[in-house]
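To illustrate the input format used throughout this study, we show a single complete record. The first block contains the structure-token representation of the backbone; no residue identities are included at this stage. The design step must infer an amino acid for every position from geometry alone.
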């Protein structure tokens, strides 16, 4: 007990440094390019909060590979979540869909895939904007423990975790550094 309060001891382990993250994102961009022959049909949509930054980076990498810009947007899934009644009032983030997504390939981009519920909410949110030809999922970290039948198409790194561990993704656009760590309570 410190100062009359219980203190939770945590330990942290670095999973990915800035250089490793750059290499992983470059690999994922190549995989997206290989799987999507019609490059002009691809739209990247980052799932709020970390996904939009990663989608921008993937968009830049794909633009270099394909020789043309790739539309990049972001989607907030807050109002499509199935746990709204179990949480504090949610913070709403912007949704920006950069073009008509009908009959296009939408690559949803997120930082961490866990239960699959955020991805399900993102799919529901996309339905408000149109009907893509197909939707693919790219994640920086897949930590398992799925509660829904959702599987990523592109994975930066798969990490075995327990349900009580937490993945912390710090991106330079928000925190001034790129770092992924695993935190144990």
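Output of the design step:
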């Amino acid at each position: 007990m410190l100062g009359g309060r219980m203190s939770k001891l945590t330990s942290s382990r670095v999973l990915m440094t800035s250089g490793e993250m750059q290499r992983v994102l470059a690999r994922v961009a190549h995989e997206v390019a290989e799987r999507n022959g019609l490059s002009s049909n691809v739209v990247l949509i980052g799932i709020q909060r970390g996904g939009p930054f990663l989608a921008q980076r993937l968009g830049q990498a794909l633009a270099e590979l394909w020789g043309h810009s790739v539309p990049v947007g972001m989607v907030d899934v807050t109002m499509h979540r199935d746990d709204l009644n179990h949480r504090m009032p949610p913070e709403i983030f912007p949704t920006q869909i950069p073009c008509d997504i009908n009959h296009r390939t939408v690559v949803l981009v997120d930082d961490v895939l866990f239960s699959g519920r955020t991805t399900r909410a993102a799919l529901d949110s996309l339905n408000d904007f149109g009907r893509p030809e197909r939707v693919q999922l790219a994640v920086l970290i897949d930590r398992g423990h799925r509660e829904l039948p959702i599987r990523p198409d592109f994975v930066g790194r798969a990490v075995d975790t327990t349900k009580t561990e937490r993945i912390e993704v710090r991106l330079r656009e928000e925190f001034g550094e790129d770092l992924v760590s695993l935190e144990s309570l």
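Structural context for interpreting the output: The chain has one domain: 20-81+91-163. The two ends are 16 Å apart (CA to CA).
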